[in-house]
Specification:
Length: 454
């Protein structure tokens, strides 16, 4: 389940910007990623409510994946029907299909967590120890489809082959990435109906309308440690889609500025996949880091990693030795993403009552991939549009401009969030013992290390 869940996303998430640029929609890249954030403001919460009250999570996961896959295939068909280079698909219909597809896909991230936690706990597993190794398969799936679309090539004559060379018909530049995503979505949707049942927890007590609709998950904001956690989740969420949207157009743009023959510039999707390799390794470290340092310090590590992620992009280039900075940016991404997203999901699961856990995971998605990602993506788009513009060259159309200033602005934002985090959360002056550190990671009703009462 985890492998296919993220394989669907990996097929297009980091490289759709290249296709949009060639299809005359490069100026809409920020909006394509913001749409994921906008639908995440309400769709994960709504689907979480349904999963908590009426439809078993694994069945709802299957329904959402089938719908998302079908509409993504609709986007592929529009691109395919447009045909030759320079003939653009219907932008309004393309954007509509894409919006509906991601509206059904984004809730599945939280739903897949809910399904995994439910099955693990029903079989007597400790989720903090057992879930991260399982979640690794999601990252492996993401990497697998990134590698596939990076190398797979289909010419107008129907010739299919794999290449790492400079070829305009590789899937990472065309609508074929959408076919891969949509097809895998249908496979996963059908598979979900074979998963173990996740029984709905029903209460015999009389419930208010807010409780019936699952809106009582928002009461978590009354708990100070949860409110602060969600606020900083939103701020970190502003970083999530920035490199997803602009990393590959940025690296590919070097083809139009004297680096056309470099491996990195021609294989931006493959190079970016090193981020997911790092992510897979970092997931396995989460149990140790949570037990040793607590959620506060783990989140601070994620913030510092975001500073380095953006900073290395700002001063690197695809030729040696500058490409080593790109590689370092990919490596630190594992810490930036996992130490925030996966640890956060575990924290929410441990801190909330079983009856609202699907709703609480949806709320976490709302704050990160919803409000945070939407504001962050649109803001990033404004910065990129200010410093960079799509420019036609002999090698193709590329997003050229002052990328150094762009990435350093993003790094400055992440640094400001980290400083604010340190100010709000006060570290204990003494180092916790091994026993105390272990107790802190149980994440019970008491505040985890790093969360203090103001």
């Amino acid at each position: 389940m985890n492998f296919l869940e993220f394989a669907v996303w990996g097929a297009y998430l980091t490289c759709i910007g290249n296709y949009l640029g060639s299809a005359g929609m490069g100026h809409l890249i920020a909006w394509f990623y913001a749409i994921q954030g906008i639908v995440s403001i309400f769709m994960p919460t709504i689907m979480g409510i349904i999963a908590d009250r009426w439809v078993q999570p694994q069945k709802l996961l299957g329904i959402c994946q089938l719908a998302a896959g079908a509409f993504m295939l609709g986007c592929w068909w529009l691109g395919y029907s447009a045909g030759a280079v320079g003939v653009y698909p219907d932008r309004t219909l393309f954007l509509t299909f894409y919006t509906i597809s991601v509206a059904f896909y984004m809730p599945t991230i939280a739903l897949s967590n809910t399904v995994a936690f439910s099955v693990l706990k029903s079989n007597g597993y400790d989720t903090i120890t057992a879930f991260p190794p399982i979640r690794v398969f999601g990252t492996v799936g993401f990497i697998a489809t990134m590698w596939f679309v990076n190398c797979a090539t289909l010419t107008h004559d129907g010739e299919f082959f794999f290449t790492l060379g400079n070829h305009a018909h590789r899937f990472q530049y065309t609508y074929m990435q959408l076919l891969v995503s949509g097809g895998l979505g249908l496979v996963l949707g059908l598979y979900c109906f074979t998963l173990p049942a996740c029984h709905i927890v029903k209460s015999d007590k009389k419930q208010s309308l807010a409780e019936l609709l699952g809106l009582n998950a928002f009461k978590l904001f009354k708990i100070k440690k949860m409110a602060i956690f969600f606020i900083f989740s939103m701020l970190l969420g502003m970083c999530l889609q920035v490199t997803n949207g602009y990393a590959t157009p940025f690296i590919t743009s070097f083809k139009g500025s004297g680096f056309a023959d470099t491996f990195a510039a021609n294989n931006a999707t493959l190079l970016t996949s090193l981020s997911q390799v790092s992510e897979a390794l970092c997931i396995l470290m989460i149990p140790f880091f949570l037990k040793r340092f607590g959620i506060k310090r783990v989140m601070l590590m994620a913030m510092i990693a975001w500073v380095l992620r953006f900073g290395f992009f700002g001063i690197g280039n695809p030729d040696f030795p500058g490409v080593t900075l790109f590689i370092l940016s990919m490596i630190v991404y594992g810490v930036a993403f996992d130490f925030f997203n996966v640890s956060g999901a575990l924290f929410v699961e441990q801190e909330t009552d079983k009856s609202i856990q699907a709703s609480a995971q949806g709320l976490f998605m709302l704050m990160t991939n919803g409000i945070g990602a939407t504001v962050g993506t649109l803001s990033a788009g404004a910065v990129v549009d200010h410093f960079c513009h799509w420019t036609a060259t002999d090698e193709g159309s590329f997003l050229l401009g002052d990328w150094t200033a762009t990435w350093l602005i993003f790094a400055g934002f992440a640094l400001a969030v980290a400083i604010a985090f340190v100010i709000v959360f006060k570290d204990s002056k003494s180092n916790p013992s091994t026993t105390e550190a272990s107790e802190q990671t149980k994440l019970t009703d008491s505040a985890p290390e790093g969360f203090v009462e103001a």
